[in-house]
């Protein structure tokens, strides 16, 4: 017998001018005023219309469930995801004598030269398609034992051919014809990338002691194959590939002390191949005779995690607390920064080596009383690098230093209200100081944000089911803060193990959202 679950189709289109990402010095000088230019001027690459982020996404999921026998159930979920740009960034490139890959070009004879450069709209019309299927089966061998097994397959193609379009003195032309050199599109990267993922898994769950004790053990095998080409003249390597095979065991156990109280332990493993397509390829720019970004380490990240905890789910309150330990090998720190000399940002993984993270987290919430329900949560984290960082010319002494993106304390306080008609929610969040360099010579201050939601549900009428109106107020204190960053080895010069000087490189920061108000109206049908 087959059972069809609700099918899911979606299309999403986003277009926005993002915040500029400042360095610490730029943030200290301008704050949230460090933004793209409001008005066009010849040669002004920071004009906001030249710097746009566009995301188009189509998603189709078709879940199906089959009962093969009373104790055997099959689940099949094919899916398709299509994402594409373009991303836009203003850039001044040489009117003559610039570079197409490693080859120097002559006079471009386009645009309006200003001091030997022409202003262009640098476009990245990336296009990514993924088709896949998740297949799993649950076989109940007895009242207390269930065997699960399955397969996940996904095939992805990714095309990324950047181009440049001239912007003339009056601000026109930037949506026109692309610039060509010798009949070929002038580009900094011409990537064609393919990925296949095969993952097999099996798991067995056994219940004992009148179902108070639950034991579960499983094993996954992940196989990832990647290959791609870069057709820019002089690209070396021209063809890139990476193949990964990782066994991933896992175990969990839980015991119900009472019907409301549970203790548990988990032991899991996971792996992650380098995330970015750019990790496999060089990136070029007309302003440079050499690649401005080089391929990174293609070693996969592997993690081993342990957790022990306690949960209480009762009539009056819920509480949970756990201790955790995570050991990472070849940890991939994903850093999103500007391509040198441009306003275009790309994500690039950096292999920092080993990392150890330990901590405790807890949550507490009261049951609803007179329609109100409060909530508290918090986490303490101690995360350090295990190895010194290889700069290519020597090692920096990063072992034992605090990891980036690892605030020591985080916490949240929330209060919700819901009487069936009127509803609302308030939350206040604290995030502690975070280092943004591996040498811990630059950091991002702690920050606090608060948000408020107010809404009203109306009675159903006609074809509308439970229509509602909702007001969302974000960052109601209008705090100006940095919410994240790119990551570098060191912001200031340091001596490496070989005596060489590692030049400083300033991280760039993401600007946290300022106060905003939004009203939404929704309904079921």
Structural overview:
Keywords: Cell outer membrane, Ion transport, Iron, Iron transport, Membrane, Receptor, Signal, TonB box, Transmembrane, Transmembrane beta strand, Transport. Residues 30-476 form the TonB-dependent receptor-like beta-barrel domain. By secondary structure, this protein is an all-beta fold. The chain has one helix at residues 24-30, and strands spanning 2-4, 8-16, 53-61, 64-69, 72-84, 87-94, 99-100, 103-104, 117-124, 127-142, 145-161, 163-166, 180-181, 184-185, 190-208, 213-230, 239-258, 261-272, 301-313, 317-329, 332-338, 345-351, 355-366, 372-385, 389-390, 395-396, 409-418, 422-431, 434-435, 443-444, 447-457, 465-474, 482-485, 494-495, 501-502, 509-511, 516-524. It is 1% helix and 58% strand. The strands form nine sheets. The chain has a 20-stranded antiparallel β-sheet that branches. A three-stranded antiparallel β-sheet has the order 6-9-12, with no helix packed on it. A two-stranded antiparallel ribbon has the order 7-8. The two termini are 29 Å apart.
